[in-house]
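Technical note accompanying the year-one report. For the benefit of new consortium partners, we illustrate the data format agreed upon in the data management plan: each record pairs a sequence with a structure-token string. No post-processing was applied to the example shown here.
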Amino acid sequence: IHAKIIKGSKEAQFGYTVQQHEADGQKWLLVGAPFESSGEHQTGDVYRCPLDRKPATNCTRLHLEKVSLNNVFERKEKMRLGMTLASNPKDNSFVACGPLWSYECGSSYYSTGICSRVNSSFDFTHSIAPAFQRCETYMDIVIVLDGSNSIYPWYEVQDFLINVLQKFYVGPGQIQVGVVQYGERVVNEFRLDDFRTVEEVVAAAKNIDQRGGEETRTALAISVARTQAFKHGGRPDAKKVMIVITDGESHDSPNLRKVVEESEKDNITLYGIAVLGYYNRRGINPEAFLREIKFIATDPEEHFFSVTDESALKDIVDALGEKIFSLEGTNQNGTAFGLQMSQAGFSSHIVEDGILVGAVGAYDWNGAVLKETRQGKVIPPKSSYMKEFPEELKNHGAYLGYMVSSVISAQHGQLYVAGAPRFNHTGKVVIFTLTNSGNLTILYSLYGQQIGSYYGSELAPIDLDDDGLTDLLLVGAPMYFYKGWEKGRVYIYTISLQGFFIPDGTLGPSEKTHDSRFGAAMSTLPDLNGDGFSELVVGAPLEDNHKGAIYLFYGQQNSIQPKYKQRIAAGDIFPGLRYFGRSVHGMMDVNGDELIDLSVGALGAAVLLWSRSVVRVGISIHFEPSKINVFNKDCIRGGREVSCMLATVCLNITPRTPITDPKTVGIWLDDKFIFILENKNHLCSAEMVSYCLFTQEVTDYTHPLIFSVNVGLQNADEGPVLDDGWPTSLQSELPFWNGCDNDDQCVPNLVLQSSSDLLDRRQFCGRRERSTWPPCVHQRTSGERLVEASRRKVLVEARLENRGENAYGTILHITHSANLQFSSLVLKVCSLEKHPDLIVFCVSFGFSVVLCSHFVSFIQVYFRLEFEFSRSVFLNYVQITLRVSSEGEEMSPEDNINDIYHNLKYEMFLLKLFVLQIQNLGMFPVSELLFTLNVFAVTRNANALLRLSDLDITQVKFKRLDLVMTAVVELSPSSPMFLHEERPMRHIILEIRKEEEYRIPIWVIVGSTLGGLQLLALLVLALWKV
């Protein structure tokens, strides 16, 4: 893998985003580092890295953390600048966003996000903050302070002023304060734009001394504050508030009505504070004074305050602050509070007329999509999303705008696409239109299938054929759970001509991977393999135990190939890489080889992957002669005459993508180096290699010889690669010449002859001992074969002769009757007078087919076929049919069949026992055997006395009687068996005894008793002596 690693700070998350960029006539890689620090603050930043093949690359920090908005008290700490990058190839500008950029509003910080627009010279041009709204505290407040002699003590008024100022949120984008003191004359103590912090204002207030004066000219003071104080340092779009503090009736009260009306025309909100200390100290009725101050207040119910004396001013400080901040600063369009935490810039996408940004935190984290154009910001109203993001699901936090993109549809033109990965926990993608007037219309919605899959967190539209119309929309679900692992998945949607988004399958990582986060990053690439279709790269940053990997998928007609073509793991590049594939981008030739290269982000690194050219190698083979003539021995190899031929292999190289260095293309053929392509200007280069071939001991002349050619690159690690969709091997057939007059068809004349070794009557009876046997005495049907009792097999001798042209694919078909089993075939003799070196080879397939190699003219082959008699099937005949066939058109098909058929007579070999048991000692089963047993009573001289018809032993007066019986064995006339005698007879003597009652004799009992007594006496005597 050809790669270059650009290293950066892991702590700064260098490599979180990558973007190829061209500016100043040079190619760069923009690398986001959203955790980069600027001094003590972690602001984030973007680096630019020159793209070349130099071993080392020095990246330059752009210091975009200087991005800012005027008149805003901003907070850049952890704003994550560089978290998103979007490059505009039309003007070579780019946008970098920090979605957590915040600004202060009162006591809160609003994270509305900010983006920085950078031109082709890497100069910051302007800030983009579409979600930014003016604070509620964006006010110009002028305090009109009565400093006449009647105010006493002055420090109480001064303390009140300081306490009130400390309640104000003074700063850029918030409150500006000016103080006017009056008595007989009016003096501007400080202007609205003199101080920018509370501390500065309070310090200035401490230095205000009482001017004094005999008169209280309140109308003049209001007029000066309106005409001068709000003009000097005032902001035209800020809310104007005037606070009048006095302790007595004005000496120019006739002018009050006029100055109050003029103030109201200038949209100045007036607050009146009446200090009654002078009246109380002198016991004067303050009614007229109070009416005057109420008249000055814009709303007497809300904007009027009165205190008993100067010391009581401190009691209304909090109330005054609450009144001012609760009534002022609201936005009439109702979006001010909905976009306070929008985090605009969480995603960004450059469109034709501006920049589309995702604002995931808008509207209680349901999210929104905003747009910045040259005419200004475009903020769709919240109601635009209500149908697809109903109010009852607002607590789910859909995060709409997590990713934004656009597609070009033939039906609708440009459509915007936004992902909401947490919608209803399963995720959602919406396709919509957005006008510059803020009218947002959602046309289609796509839904995730699994809870927590983060469907819609990544989007990738693809124009497969570069016709200007988007063909596919790919939606990532990197947390998709499959088979117990968080593998990730990418959904494919085809965009029809009618503008519909049709599901068209999914993509996934390798089956061997576990937690991959496949789909966390995606990027489309221009055509890499020369097939005219764009490709897709998908990142899986958690694969291989968080080392990461990327997957390359090839495009095809109307879709993406479902199986990835290449998987590049971090370990294949550098073992220390982690989270490789967290961001991917590829759109330009980085190293000048006219091939699109890929940039991949990792933790603390950006990796450049150089693409390699794709070539196709065409293979063709030519044989001379075009057919093998085994009858023509034109070469001598190893002292033998053989048939030779010439094989010429032609290779053609066709580059599918540009090749800048042709000498890197080395071709090998079957492990042999062939050539190097020398001229890159040739679209096709050819090389021919010749081989001399010869045949040796070929036994199968029917099927052609197969030649296989395999090609490859000499150095698989350098230079181009072979097109994996193009074959790198070729099989070609070289047939044999059939040796016949007609090259397409031979006309053989196969003649088959056969005979068996079964004995006919003459052969069987030729032996003397058989001459008296019944089959030899009685003449029966001719053609019968006699089977000896000892025979187990039948042998068939066959001869096959070819009296015509060569026969190929000669097959001997063997069929036989069921009482035979095929045992073997033996090639006995092969007569090859004209071709003594030609080998005839036969092989048996099962028990019915024998296939032989080609039979040349006048060849004779002798076969011996062996069959065994079956022990389970018995027939009175035998049949063996031999049939020969070949691939040619037979001249005389009638002599291709031999049918051997014989009626059989089987010799019986019976052993007769006098136990009245007849045992068949022959091989063949005996049927229809009639056994006759005649029992006669005869004398000792064999004279018959009677024929026994019944026997009753109890009527016979003898103890034993010998009976002589006669046994005769006869065969049915239709039986296929024969005996050695016509009608064999045997006499059997039976001994018959009458059953008697048996008792023990008396003398045995008496003798046994006496013997026992004698033995007992001897034992007693022996024991007595002892």
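Partners are asked to follow this layout when depositing records. The radius of gyration is 58 Å.
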